[in-house]
Automatic annotation (TrEMBL):
The keyword Electron transport is annotated on this UniProt entry: no
PANTHER family found in the cross-reference section: LEUCINE-RESPONSIVE REGULATORY PROTEIN, TRANSCRIPTIONAL REGULATORY PROTEIN (PROBABLY ASNC-FAMILY)-RELATED
One matching Pfam family: HTH_AsnC-type
InterPro entries for this protein: AsnC-type_HTH_dom, Dimeric_a/b-barrel, Tscrpt_reg_AsnC-like, Tscrpt_reg_AsnC/Lrp_C, Tscrpt_reg_HTH_AsnC-type_CS, WH-like_DNA-bd_sf, WH_DNA-bd_sf
Gene3D superfamilies: 3.30.70.920, Winged helix-like DNA-binding domain superfamily/Winged helix DNA-binding domain
Species assigned in the record: Streptomyces gilvifuscus
Keyword Transcription regulation: yes
Record's protein name: Lrp/AsnC family transcriptional regulator
All residue ranges annotated as the HTH asnC-type domain in the record: 2-63
Keywords, in A-Z order: DNA-binding, Transcription, Transcription regulation
Stored SUPFAM superfamilies: Dimeric alpha+beta barrel (SSF54909), Winged helix' DNA-binding domain (SSF46785)
Taxonomy, superkingdom: Bacteria
Length: 150
């Protein structure tokens, strides 16, 4: 469990992973070396698992986004679903879920035809009984950070 100070450091890094320790220190009231020690500890304990960049999907040619509910055949394990989906570069996130569906998958594609082809390939996986999809018209909110926003 992170304390308030660690949450604020994590939030600052999540907003801009290239932010300096000195800059973060000014935000949270610590020296740069103190921030570095805390970040090192957060990495060592696994609270911070890495640093990354956020890319606008449309800059990569991914203009169409959708979510696919997957309804699996009986006795399909989460590991089987994961192995089946990890081959698709268009699948950017997949989770098992509660409710009628077994999993939900976030898909990015270059256009509607591409999305349809991906959907057909996913539906053809041996573990898939049926799918249900929705397309994103406009993303309203995307949060990439964790921790306290203040």
């Amino acid at each position: 469990m992170l304390n308030d100070l660690d949450e604020r450091i994590v939030h600052a890094l999540a907003e801009d992973a290239r932010r300096s320790y000195a800059d973060i220190g000014q935000l949270v009231g610590l020296s740069a070396p103190a921030v570095k020690r805390r970040v090192d500890r957060l990495r060592a304990t696994g609270a911070i698992t890495g640093f990354t960049v956020r890319v606008d999907p449309s800059a990569l040619g991914w203009e169409t986004e959708g979510f696919v509910e997957i309804y699996c055949r009986h006795n399909t394990s989460p590991e089987t679903i994961r192995r089946g989906l990890e081959r698709y570069q268009e699948v950017v996130a997949a989770s098992t879920v509660t409710g009628d569906a077994d999993a939900i998958v976030q898909v990015f594609a270059s256009d509607m035809r591409h999305f349809e082809r991906v959907l057909e390939r996913i539906a053809g996986e041996p573990f898939v009984e049926r799918t249900k999809s929705v397309l994103v018209l406009s993303p309203l909110l995307r949060r990439f950070s964790s921790g306290s926003p203040t």
